[in-house]
């Protein structure tokens, strides 16, 4: 794909040829002017092609930026509850089945947790890492600082 800079470089060719045509017209040499006009036409077509390529690339980059923005917005719309990530709608309500928090942290991918009834009491299991998850099983320990504050009071 030709970039915009290459397109601009191509544009310099027709400008030089226009000066050549102007000189040929001044000399009243129709053959030289005709040859220069044919070269100009070819250069303008190359320029048009380069600009179309640049436009396509810009469109792809804009789509990619939109996707990144959408992904960034999705990342902020989650709630973590004991290893389960729940997606939140615009009102802050949970939407759909939860995802595995551990897989999201480790692999930066969202894997759905499936509803199960495990002997440990957990009510979900990750389809990817197979870890038991959920609010009915043993809860995750709170951060050390929070436990320390509770003990020291």
TrEMBL record:
Source domain of life:
Bacteria
Query: What is the recorded name of this protein?
Result: Uncharacterized protein
Protein's organism: Pontivivens marinum
């Amino acid at each position: 794909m030709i970039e915009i800079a290459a397109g601009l470089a191509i544009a310099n060719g027709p400008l030089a040829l226009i000066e050549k045509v102007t000189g040929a017209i001044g000399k009243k040499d129709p053959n030289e002017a005709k040859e220069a006009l044919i070269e100009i036409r070819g250069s303008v077509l190359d320029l048009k092609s380069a600009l179309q390529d640049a436009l396509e690339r810009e469109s792809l980059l804009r789509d990619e930026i939109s996707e990144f923005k959408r992904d960034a917005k999705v990342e902020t719309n989650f709630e973590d509850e004991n290893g389960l990530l729940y997606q939140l709608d615009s009102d802050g309500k949970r939407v759909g089945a939860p995802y595995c928090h551990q897989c999201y942290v480790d692999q930066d991918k969202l894997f759905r947790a499936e509803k199960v009834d495990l002997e440990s009491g957990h009510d979900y299991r990750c389809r990817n890492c197979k870890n038991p998850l959920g609010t009915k099983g043993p809860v995750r320990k709170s951060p050390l600082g929070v436990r320390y504050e509770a003990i020291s009071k």
